[in-house]
Amino acid sequence: MSGQDKPQGVPGQQQHKDSHGTEKEMSPKPQYDAPWYKGSGKLEGKVALITGGDSGIGRSVAILFAREGANVAIVYFKNDHDAEETKSMIEKEGRKCLPIKGDISQKQFCTQAVQKTVETFKHLDILVNNAAVQFPQESIEDISEEQLDTTFRTNIYSMFFLTQSAMPHLKKSEAGCVINTTSVTTFKGNPKLLDYASTKGAIVGFTRSLAQNLASSGIRVNGIAPGPIWTPLIPSTFSKEKVENFGKNVPMERPGQPEECAPAYVYLASKDSSYMTGQVLHINGGNSY
User: Is-catalytic flag, 157?
Assistant: First the structure.
């Protein structure tokens, strides 16, 4: 990526209150298609299931996986427009896309999502646990039991549910792997995202422990901890002032773009990372802890 091609800071926009966010309402749009990235068949013939694959980081990962030769199932909550747009982008890469709509906080749906993926593509090689929600609160006293339950069920319970359902299929794959999205918040902390940061910390523990549990089976498990990335989650959950200053507090003084995260997911999904498991890659604009 040349200096002229590097994404610049993101100006503020009108906030749209929706804990899951939507790509179509964002201005400026996130950069997700990575025109500078050239595929080389690293995932040829593979099948990936990506949660939160309709927008943000998940969308960019889905596109680059397709560019590398994989067919992709994208799980999304409710934004049909975003999901169809992502499907179209994947098909432009010459690969197939299966959009699956539902709530990953529910075990039954997670089981069905894996079943639909395997029924459609006949196998499953890569599971990307990426979807998450966040609900900023000023004080721990403001976090209701309902919010706590929603955050944990969506962000970490879903990873258990999906991985459990995917395991029989990943064990049959010659290159089975799991990639979990954690966050800078679990390493740096965030005073207004107590429950979110807690789930992201749990994801790190889950990643490291599952990697040890599955090492002998040949299934690799790794994670990625994004810093301030311009995705629908940001304007949908933060105040206008927070959005206007989003990403300015890191050494690179700007938010990252989904397309700046996606190549790392390709790396972890491919043979390039064949001797890596139980690790977390930090893509955060220069943050250190």
Answer: no
Q: What is the pTM of this model?
A: 0.89
**Other beta carbons within 10 Å of 222:** 24
Distance CA 165, CA 115 (A): 8
Q: Kindly report the CATH number assigned to the domain that includes residue 275.
A: 3.40.50.720
Domain count for the chain: 1
Q: Check if the beta carbon of residue 79 is closer than 8 Å to that of residue 54.
A: yes
pLDDT digits 0-9 by tens, 213-232: 999 999 999 999 998 887 76
Which helix or strand (DSSP H or E) is residue 280 part of? strand 280-283
- Report the mean per-residue pLDDT for the chain: 89
Q: Is the pLDDT of residue 188 over 70?
A: yes
Domain boundaries, position 67: 43-280
Q: Confirm whether 286 is domain-assigned.
A: no
SS percent in the chain: helix, strand, coil, step 5: 45, 15, 45
Contact 114, 166 (CB under 8 A): yes
In this structure, is residue 26 part of a structural domain? no
SS3 assignment, position 181:
strand
Of 37, 196, 265, 267, the active-site residue reads 196
Within a domain: 31: no
Burial string for 68-89 (b: 16+ CB within 10 Å, else e) reads: bbbbbbbbbbebeebbebbbeb
- Flag whether 250 is in a domain: yes
> For 257-285, how does the pLDDT look when each residue is reduced to its tens digit (9 = 90+)?
999 999 999 999 999 999 999 999 999 99
